[in-house]
Design brief:
Radius of gyration of chain A: 26 Å
Number of strands of chain A: 0
Largest sheet of chain B: none
Strand content of chain A: under 5%
Structural class of chain B: mainly alpha
Order of helices and strands of chain B: HHHHHH
Largest sheet of chain A: none
Order of helices and strands of chain A: HHHHHHHH
Shape of chain B: extended
Shape of chain A: extended
Oligomer: heterodimer
Number of domains of chain B: 3
Helix content of chain B: over 70%
Number of strands of chain B: 0
């Protein structure tokens, strides 16, 4: 198939979609007075809904990719133990999909609503919370590496980090109230200032990246090269 | 009778949650079969959950416009394009997925950056400049000046990246910016550690008081 269909039309679609959103943002006021503003608003909102809808199709890629990887692993695994983990993953995934299709509140018919809630409450939520919580142990080793005072700037990170961890403890609250005042001051002024600088810099970078994507310079999202 | 069944189901759920919690935490010792089991359960559960939620959203944001009453026939277009996206796995027709991804990228990237102009650039600049005119005691005024200096120097560090602007007579500006950023990173790293410890304490509370039912 010609490069027109494979590459140029998708790039044109990206540009047109971006243009509609840009026009909607800059030319449609909160109080619409002109018919063309209302049309522009409709196109902008519809396009945003379409993008949200398509983003949900993209989630399916995750399921397909996991299935492909684990199907391959089942076929190639030499021991039954390795096969078992992948088979178990399929069982859990299938259980969530089946119960979700008949229990998720947004579905047409929800006879399994209670089972869906149960699965969420006793399987997904504990796993989610514990995985995040167990990162604290990795952070302990991260702390050791990050808080080594090799330079003066590293020492600043170490001192502020240590005091910020300790300032909520009863020991510091009782015997070193000045630490609490200092950390509060750091959180309110220098940290906010530095983060605002980072935020504005990142936003300017994101804006440039957006413009590069719209004009077709950035094409990584199209996948493999033809 | 119904109450007893509900209680048994709840109790089974608590035992499963406790088992999965301990299995995940067991990785602290080292990678082990128990952790692998819980890890695969987590990946399967998260994938299945996301898929079910995605189907629900496709129904809510797409199919509802077409069925049971036809509200907007144009919504057939994203549904067809969405299905075409799965040609990504086809050897020769893979390019069909680009139509859908082009709509998502074009719309979301633009929406993100136009909002970013207002929320991340203009609002931040406005509030940083206006803070200089805020009245208050000496500590507050000093703090405001420090905030503005931290803002300008850290912005300089990232925006003016030519080597000549990071060395020589101007080299002190990004150096000051780096100091402020180190202080900010120290604070936010510590806050993250404390948040994770909080989460971990939450899991311990679950094990001690909900699973083992120890008196509080």
């Amino acid at each position: 198939m010609s490069v027109l269909y494979r590459r140029h039309i998708p790039l044109a679609i990206t540009f047109i979609c971006g243009l509609i959103i840009l026009l909607q943002f800059f030319f449609v006021p909160a109080n619409i007075t002109e018919p063309w503003q209302s049309s522009l608003q409709y196109y902008g909102v519809t396009l945003t809904n379409w993008a949200n809808l398509l983003a949900n199709f993209i989630i399916g890629f995750g399921v397909v990719n996991i299935s492909l990887i684990h199907a391959r692993r089942i076929m190639r695994a030499k021991s039954w133990v390795d096969k078992f983990y992948s088979i178990w993953l399929f069982i859990v995934m299938a259980a969530f999909i089946v119960v979700g299709l008949f229990g998720y509140p947004r579905m047409w018919w929800t006879p399994l609503a209670a089972n869906w809630d149960w699965l969420q409450l006793y399987v997904l939520t504990p796993l989610d919370a514990t995985v995040y919580a167990s990162l604290v142990f990795y952070m302990a080793s991260g702390c050791y590496r990050a808080f080594r005072a090799r330079t003066l700037e590293g020492a600043a990170l170490l001192v502020v980090g240590f005091l910020s961890i300790m300032y909520k403890t009863p020991l510091f609250q009782a015997y070193a109230p000045w630490v609490i005042k200092t950390i509060d001051w750091i959180a309110k002024y220098p940290a906010v200032g530095a983060y605002r600088g980072i935020q504005v810099s990142a936003a300017l970078g994101a804006i440039l990246l957006g413009i590069r994507t719209l004009i077709g310079v950035e094409t990584g999202y199209l996948g493999r090269r033809d | 009778m119904a109450d007893i069944i509900t209680e048994i189901i709840t109790e089974i759920g608590i035992w499963i949650a406790a088992f999965l919690t301990i299995a995940i935490v067991s990785v602290v010792y080292r990678d082990n079969p128990l952790f692998k089991f819980a890890e695969h359960t987590y990946v399967g559960a998260a994938a299945g959950y996301s898929f079910a939620v995605a189907i629900g959203n496709i129904r809510g944001y797409g199919i509802e416009y077409l069925y049971p009453t036809l509200k907007d026939p144009w919504y057939i277009v994203p549904l067809i394009i969405g299905v075409l996206m799965y040609f990504r796995y086809h050897r020769t027709l893979y390019w069909l997925f680009r139509y859908g991804i082009a709509i998502v990228v074009g719309t979301s990237v633009t929406a993100a950056f136009v909002r970013s102009i207002e929320a991340d650039v203009l609002t931040q600049l406005r509030s940083t400049i206006s803070i200089l005119f805020t009245k208050g005691d000496a500590i507050t005024i000093l703090g405001n000046v420090v905030l503005v200096v931290a803002f300008i120097t850290s912005l300089y560090y990232f925006i003016f990246t030519f080597p000549s602007l990071h060395a020589g007579s101007l080299g002190y500006i990004p150096r000051i910016g780096r100091w402020f950023m180190m202080i900010a990173f120290g604070y936010s790293f510590a806050t993250t550690v404390v948040t994770r410890i909080d989460l971990f304490v939450g899991r311990l509370n679950f094990l001690l008081f909900e699973w083992l039912k120890l008196p509080a």
